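Hello support,

Our group uses your service weekly, and this is the first time we've seen a run hang past the timeout. The protein is non-specific serine/threonine protein kinase. I'm not sure whether the cause is the sequence or the server load. Input pasted verbatim:
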Amino acid sequence: MRIQVIVITTLHVLINVVPQTTVCATSSYSDGNPEAFLCATSNSSDDVLQATVSAMSSCTDDVLQAIACVMSSCTDDVLQAIACVMSSCTDDVLQAIACVMSSCTDDVLQAIACVMSSCTDDVLQAIACVMSSCTDDVLQAIACVMSSCTDDVLQAIACVMSSCTDDVLQAIACVMSSCTDDVLQAIACVMSSCTDDVLQAIACVMSSCTDDVLQAIACVMSSCTDDVLQAIACVMSSCTDDVLQAIACVMSSCTDDVLQAIACAMSSCSDDILQATVCAMSSCTDDVLQTIACATSNSSDDVLQATVSAMSSCSDDVPSICCDMSTLVLMLLKLQSVRQRTLCHLSQLGEGGFGTVYAATCLDDGLQVSICITYNIYLANHFCPRVEEIIQLLDWRVESDHYILVLERPVPSEELNWFLLRQMVNIEEDVSWVIMRQATFAAQTCCRRGVLHRDIKMENILINPDTLKVKLIDFGCGDFLVLTEMGSTYCPPEYLMTGQYHGEPATLWSLGILLFALLCGDFPKIQTSLSSFCIECCDIICRCLQFDPKQRIELEKLSLHNWFMVNTFG
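Update from on-call engineer: The timeout came from a worker crash unrelated to the input. Re-ran successfully.
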């Protein structure tokens, strides 16, 4: 190919007699193709240097190639440069690259980067435009967008928009992507704003995918004020063979001389794997250094692996590591199969002796679970086969000073005390029998496994209002068969008198109080009469509520009492 460049200089009457320059580029082709001649012109005034860069192209085999024009104007000591547009295409491809236009005023340097694209084999590729405006001594640069695609692929890269004011340097890094073989890849936009001598950098997002892969990388958003350096690290991912990989967004805000860094997440997956890296959120104030460490993971063979993020808040130079609402850690949920699932945080359920409990949902099938942060690290070692009457421990994670437990969250369900309040009247004896039979079995199972609940009460029993199925929850007071202190609403008389108790008799006392409250709607009083209930019901209550713990019925024999065995409620 032969290139001819002709420079033509003409004198043009402008203010202060400033020359005008026209730069032209010609190209030659083979195989009987037309020759294209592209010119760029510029005008300037008041000591202005303006350069418009030309574009050159070559094409072969019946190709129509159009390169759009570049136009610019500037005034008052402005240097404006608009980068070139280059493209190549083959095999009956129509490629059009849209023009770039910009204007600036008042000592502004504005540069709009180029758009480059290539396409092959009847491919439609659209690259969104980049637009920007700036005022008052602002340097604004918007990086380029590059993409390539092959074999009937539609790839769209969203636009980048930004604005800044008052001596701000703002740089938005580029987005690069490639795709092959019927792949739809979308990279979300990056938006940012900054004020008052702020350096803000948003790192690039890079991804590649092959063979029917949908990969989406979420956007990164950030804002900062007052001499803040904020950096958000990049997210990188690769996937192969029918893989859906999603990397969630990172959001952060900072104020007052804060350095906030959010580390990157890296992941790889293969062979029908869904891998999700959960987002990290943080906020900090008053000269606080907050760091959220990165998470790495790998998975294979139909495994869904979720790498859990950390959330924290801090103030007044104090690090925050406590597990409250703002420091929830979403944990890996492992069901009774090889497949693992991703959790999405919803809200805090409450706090108790067990720790802080959060509601969560399995993103795959909508399974409702609970995430509990507990400092009772010994109890979780007793992971046993499932019992329907006890809340199921699905998974746990060991931390330096606490456990994070993933628990079953039955839906629908409510605390037993709220169930009774909604009845407006005392429940019937047959309903109490159904509830107590399940509660008794749960208490016996705990005892057989060497763990006593120690806080059996209405608030720690969930009930399904439709089926009357109950589950014992909140093992925060759980301990082994020893003499110790006990803090409970249903505490036995020996604890009030001596400060000590035995586990089994104390459990029986709690069960007796529970049955009495179910039948009478209140706690036992001396003048309370049980004459309206059957003889077996009155007898089991009396056997559980003996003042002397040695005179109480044995826990293992409780389910064999005539009230459970003789009546026909079930």
